[in-house]
Structure formats: C-alpha cells, structure tokens
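LOG
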Amino acid sequence: MEKKFNNPRKQDDYKDEVLSLRRVTKVTKGGHTLHFSACVAVGDGKGKIGIGSGKSSEVVEAIKKARMQAVKNVKTIDIIDNRTISHDVI
C-alpha cells in the first residue's frame, strides 16, 4: 500500500526588501574569489518583522538565503494607533 503525504509548502505572506547587497572579494594565491553578501528585511505589515543575511557566489542565491534567514528570525512588534513608536518624536 502506497502512502501519499499531502504536505503543501506553506506560502508565507511576507513582503521582502533588500537592504544591502555587497561584493566581497577574497584575494588568494591563485587569484581573486568573488562572493556576494545580502541583507534582507521581511514583514507582513501587521507587526511582524525579521532581518537576515546570506552569502553566496551568486546574487540571487545570496538574496534567497538572506530571505530564508529573515523568515526564521521574525519577531512581533506592538502597533499602537497605527504606529510602532507609542509617543510623539520631536
């Protein structure tokens, strides 16, 4: 008897924003090795936010790793009167 596992991947509703993308070069005896470092922030607009960083030899892969790290680090922020800061800032 064959079992079928119904495990659809959960689609998260986080919006993401790339905060920084840097080129990192390591100088070795054989030459230069080029890598990319990305920092990404994710949030749902309802008080949950996360920040993550990722490194890879390709830009897209670095952003993907950073986004996965940011989703793992999601924290809840209190929103009072549609603001995250509860008092007036002068």
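LOG (cont.) second protein
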Amino acid sequence: MVTPSMSIFSFFFFLFISVGFAQSIDEKKLLSDLKLLSADELKGRKTLSEGNKKARKHIQSEFQRIGLKTQYAEYLQSFSFENQRENKRYEDAVNVIGFLPGLDSRKIIVITAHYDHVGVGKKNSKGDSIYNGADDNASGTAALLALAEYFSKNQPQHPIMFAALDGEEMGLQGAKALLKDFPFPLDNILMNINMDMISRNENDELYASGTHYYPELKPILEQASVSLLPNLRFGHDLPNTGRENWTQSSDHGPFFDEKIMHIYFGVEDHEDYHQPSDEFENIKPSFFTNAVKLILKCIVALDQKLPK
C-alpha cells in the first residue's frame, strides 16, 4: 500500500535523482579550456617550458576551484627522468593529481590525459613553428577538467583520481612516475581510462581501445553508447599488428604493463598530428563536445557496473 506521504516522498526522491543525472558537460567551458591550453602563448607546452608551466597552473587552479582532494602537496607530483632522444635529464616535471572519494568502494578509477606537447620546432609552409597540440592533447586535458567538474557534483560509486600527466611525448614519463609513486597499493586501482586526441575525426568515429584484453568491458561500453554520436568503435588493440596496436601508444601503456585494466579513448591520426597545424581552429567542436559526453556516459556505466 502506498500512502500519500510515501507518494510525495517518492516524487521528490526521483526528482532529485533526475536532476542529478541531468547535469552534464558545460560545452562552453570545455571549448574555452581547450582553446586556452592550445593557444600560441603556451608555445606547445613542452615539458619544463614556460608554456607547460602555464598549462599546469591552469589545471591546478581548476582542481582547486572544483574542490578536488589530493594526496600530493598542492596537487603536484614532481618527478625526473632521462630523455634519451635528447641525451638530457629533465628535473621537476610535474603531474597534476586530483581525487574524489567514492560512495561504496575502495577500488579506484584513474582517469588520465597528458597536458604536455612537443613545443616549438621546424616551421611549416606558412611559417608557423608552434606545435599547439590542440587535439594532442589539449582535448583530453580539457575533457579531464570537465569530467572532474561533473563528478564533483555527482559522486561516483568508485573513487576517481584525475591525473593530468606530463612527459607523455618523451616516453610516457608522467604515467610511469604516477605508478611508481602511487599513494595507494596498485592493487587498489580498478582501471585506467585514458584520453588522448578526442576532438576531431572525419568519419565521426571515436575508438575505445583495450577490449581485446578486457572483453568484459565491451558490452558495458556498447550499451552506454547506443544511438550516440560519435560512433564508438573498438579495435587498435590486437597484438602483433605494429602501429595499428595502440596498447603502448599513450599513457595507458604503463598501466597495461602493471596488468591494470584500461580503456583508451582516441581517434585515428590525422594530417595535423604532430604538426603546427594542430590548432584550435582545426578541431571539430560538435564532435569534441559529443565525444566528451559519450566518454562521460561510458565512465558512469563502468562506475555503476564494475565490481565494488
């Protein structure tokens, strides 16, 4: 039997739930962050450059504004590494790490995106020498900030770590450093979700790579992506396929090496990849905003359906 008071309670309960799930991505802020991170002023965000430090400060201030917790002083995890290509040691590269507790689990979802790029280099035919890295990977970094904002208002079941990583372009150094100095036992990591190049694709396709190794994730992602654009594709994760296998192509690689489950969201290479023309003007805004919404829906589904 349902009493009038119970009906009123149920109405407001479901209204509360609906309002919570109605919150989504702030598209204007998402695009603004991408534009800021890929501006000429940041000179391509090469590790330890002034532009890289400006990008880091923006991410740090956003984590503070959102109200994320952290296990590192002022959200910053410093590390050093040898860049064999340049025969140079890099001191005090910095990952920016935020954290949200979960409602009902100790198993952590680690969401990553690298904020560094390759800096200033050879001029193209237009005389442009700034490798802005709008798609690679200001797009993933802006998405990371948007996801942190969403989950700060919609607490997940699992704790989520938001990691803006440095040194990816020099051998996935930020991801390696994060796992080497992780603030919890690595066994506490449920999975890694990595985003790298998610703002453009001529075929309206976004890939979720990794389900070859973790087939239990595929039906969750398929269900979450039904009738949504961009089209979620699977693949680029078969062994012995050379460059077609993306398993070690970005910051999810070190997680894979530690036998930690991962999904990598990204697009296939385009003509502006690692070129000065990878600029904000060449992204596809509708593709990007829809891709981030799709990734959000996938993460919500994984958070709800994976073991606690």
